[in-house]
Amino acid sequence: MFTGIVEEIGEITAVEQLTDAARLRVRGPLVTGDAGHGDSIAVSGVCLTVVEVGGGEFTVDVVHETLRRSSLAKVAVGDAVNLERATPAGGRLGGHIMQGHVDGTGVFLARDAKGVTTFALPEHLARYVVEKGSIAVDGVSLTVAAITAEEFAVALIPTTLEATTLGRREPGDLVNLEVDVVAKYVEKLATPHLRGRGNNGDGGAEERS
After folding, report:
1. Which domain CATH number covers 44?
2. Residues 17, 55 within the same domain
3. Is this prediction's pTM over 0.90?
């Protein structure tokens, strides 16, 4: 589990294309300080497993499903990425509960002088995003300030702009999005009843004479 509080900005130092996968090497002196084989580190919001670590860098394998859903498919050597170690049991929940399971990508649209930043929102994710709710953008826990059917806005403070890659984003850049997992579970549990089916799957109505 992660909380969306980025610990450091890392850098991609190597990209190796594999069959239906990719191997990335990432520089991150802070997050590798206590990292070992099998540990989880979120790379721009994507939970990845450390397979090698040393010299302030770590290596991860990115499978096809992750490449399909995230911006890591287009990552290149020299790119900056947000890094966060998994939250230990009993650790502070500084942002919100995140799995590091990216739901899709959005597009950076604009940022005004006050830090209000707008992103395009994929249609299939719009129903999970609500005003004043939480959303993860490139692994950063953010509060939704405004939303329409096609985009959402967040207010970024100077610290967030400086301490994460969001301050370096330009219009047209892809960003990873993870919506609130609770919303997805609620939808799954409620859908049968919203369609008129009861617990027994009998349509929720009794035949009366």
Report:
1. 2.40.30.20
2. yes
3. no
